[in-house]
Task: structure prediction
Amino acid sequence: MKKEKNAKTAAKPAPSLKKDREMPFYVVKRGDAAKTPGRSILIHGGAILIALLLCGIATIFVTGDNPISIYATMFKGAFGDAHNLWKTLQDIAILLCVSLAVTPAFKMRFWNTGAEGQVLISALATAMCMFYLGGAVPTPVLMLIMILCSILAGVIWAVVPAVFKAFWGTNETLFTLMMNYVAIQLVEVFLKVADKSGSNTVGPNLLKHGWFPELFGQKYLLNILIVAVLTVLVYIYLKYSKQGYEISVVGESENTARYIGVNVKKVIIRTMVVSGALCGVAGLLLVAGTSHSIDSNLVGGRGFTAIMVSWLAKFDPLMMVLTTLLLVFLDRGASEVTTNFGLNSAYSEILTGVIIFFIIGCEFFINYKVMINRNHPFFKKKEQEAAKEVL
Result:
């Protein structure tokens, strides 16, 4: 009897836990065919509109101000007149240049957090050339020396962590981050040597030579044109060149790259040379083409903002133009709102943060889609009720 009971127990099927664990919704990864540029633009646009709507509602409840007036002030602050327009375009150019610099490294999955220091050390090299050689050599020669020294400084600051990563497998994130602080301290030393007043800034009164010339009466136009050309060149380099292909392969899998004969160490070092050279151009533009001065805060966090720009644009240099435009518009516009409406400076940061949060969050809907589980008991019951009503 006991054996028969055990046999019946063994024959009895175990209770199914699958139905109990079924969810009414599930997430499915979209195929590459579904990730079209049109869909991406539509989703990003929708995210921005929702963020603006929520910020407007919050503005009404917290400050009592008209959100339409606030957004109009933001637009005016960024594009309201010729001065604001050219200043906005200049800010876009500098941020875009730094973003172009970090993109090859990030596409290779080399987490370069040192763009801030690479740009700053290049700016220091430019300022030193202007300070020590200004007036001593002809201006064309001085500008040539400035270009070479700035690019060389950026390359050196980028190649050092690349070599350690390639040969000894060091952590590039920490290495490049620590080099930022070294660059800051070197700038502080130069400030104390060049300017005895203790102002912590070496300004145009000391850096009198080597300024970029104005084009058609616009002092920022040359900067903008240089960055526009670099954007096209970096796009072609990453998308159509052999080196760009090797960067993509190494980024996908170093083992696969080695298997097909790619020299991974060479690619890492070469790519960081490119990134460092672009950072060198950014440092040159900041000192010779924009501020004509240098201090330890010259880069102003652009090296870290550039990481977000590159990531949001999915490492596409042309898409980075739009991403940079959005971030610069938010920054300049929010600052204008803070000034005109007498709001706390944190308000502009909150406004910008909410919009960026929605932009980042919408990446989920670009890469995944939410599906209804028709086999779930809830929906089964609803279908049965609907069928009864029809009958």
